[in-house]
Amino acid sequence: MTRTRAYRDGVLYKDGFPVEEVSDFLAEPDTAVWVDLCEPSEADLTDLAGELGLHRLAVEDAVQEHQRPKLDRYDGHAFLTAYAVRFDPASGRTTTYELAVFITPRALVTVRKDDGFDVDAVTRRWDLEPDLAKSGVPFLLHGLLDHVVDGHFDAVQALDDQVEELEDLVFDDRPDTSELQRRSFELRKNLTVVRRVVGPVPDVLGSLMRRDLRLADDTMGPYFEDVHDHARQAAEHTEALRERLATVRETQLNLQSDRLNLIMKKVTGWAAVIAVPTAVTGFYGQNVAYPGNGTTSGFWVSTVVMLVLSIGLYALFKKKDWL
């Protein structure tokens, strides 16, 4: 699937033309072109690379999957790799969509590794800002990156809600330990995925805003700064969530240790209370004559002694909060 657009003098001139006409539009002055390719092969990119002068190594990276977020600079163009992120609270799964971008002075080429990335949302964003379209490629690149970074922020915020729910579960009267451990493990996996694709983005955008690339001009500079700030917030929020999740796990272990100590304290106290009548009955069970041996009074005396000592120990332990 291929999508194309051409802007002339800041106005959408043509939409949905064949890729073979890209060079014709680029021959016209004040024209910027966008080409979107979904799951292309290296052969599909070779013809376009010839027209736009794309470097062979960049074409290879665009076809290969699982590239790290980066910005590579070549003679006449730049190559950007980024990831869109989506977190589904219902399933608890984080999905990433890899995106490769060729940035030339008058053309923007996006290569999607699958159809999960919502490119229609990007075109809608462009249509909502026609006053910036005169900037050409910087305008197109900003709309694309703004959509990607907003997705990062939404995913991190959804994960933040999940961490808050986990924090509430920790302090339940009877927390489900297995459920807490399962959800903690899933959140840690999701945060690892998000951190891997969100963390490098601020540095990538910082390199993209260098003046020698001539993308962040006087018009688009503030807009790129805004995207960069949002990307930095998303990356910092991700790191904060990892720390919070580690704190939740540490708090859970501390609470489990406290509950175990409390249970052991109570069990030990009751064992001491029970040990007194056991000692008395054992003493009176000696096979020697003792006061009250074989009489009813001896039975009642031993019973009273056991009760008094047991109640006394219970009161003492209760006073010391051992029971």
UniProtKB/TrEMBL annotation:
Q: Member of which family?
A: Belongs to the CorA metal ion transporter (MIT) (TC 1.A.35) family.
Q: Which locations, inside or outside the cell, does it occupy?
A: Cell membrane
Q: Which Gene3D superfamilies match?
A: CorA soluble domain-like (3.30.460.20), Magnesium transport protein CorA, transmembrane region (1.20.58.340)
In its UniProt entry, the species of origin is given as: Amycolatopsis camponoti
Q: Where are the transmembrane segments?
A: 267-285, 297-317
Q: Which GO terms describe its cellular component?
A: plasma membrane
**Coiled-coil ranges from the UniProt annotation:** none
Q: What CDD domains does the annotation carry?
A: TmCorA-like
UniProtKB keywords? Cell membrane, Membrane, Transmembrane, Transmembrane helix, Transport
One Pfam assignment: CorA
First-listed, main subcellular location of the protein, grouped into a coarse class: membrane
- Cite the GO molecular-function annotations of the record: cobalt ion binding; cobalt ion transmembrane transporter activity; magnesium ion binding; magnesium ion transmembrane transporter activity
The source's superkingdom equals Bacteria
Which topology term describes how it sits in the membrane?
Multi-pass membrane protein
List the top taxonomic levels of the source.
Bacteria, Bacillati, Actinomycetota, Actinomycetes, Pseudonocardiales
Q: This chain belongs to which protein, by name?
A: Magnesium and cobalt transport protein CorA
